[in-house]
Input
Amino acid sequence: MPNIGSSDLSSNQIDDFIEHGYVKLEQAFDAELAQQGRDDLWAAMGLSPNEPHTWTRSVIRLGFMSGPCFIAAANTPLLHGSYDALVGEARWLRPTGLGTFPIRFPFEDDPVMVAGMSI
Output
């Protein structure tokens, strides 16, 4: 069993992770870092949050994001402690970014489905 004392994860959170494959962590990074990530995602799409008339697709998929803000967001002290609690200290590799990102836009029609996945 991982060392629970290395993070603020409870035994219940660890059990939920084992059963469901994810755990929700509040405030894993600050609002400034989140805003930088949003700005970088808009830039990667070549779109603006203030120009909805340019949003012509219901879904845009962005690949792995490895810019500085994504590396920082994946490597906060809270997350490192949680990684340690979930898999054990020194049993994981430092993340080099985040991704992928399916970005959904308000659209009258549902996205096109191909083999059970929206495109």
About this structure: Confidence is low (pLDDT under 50) at residues 1-6. The radius of gyration is 17 Å.
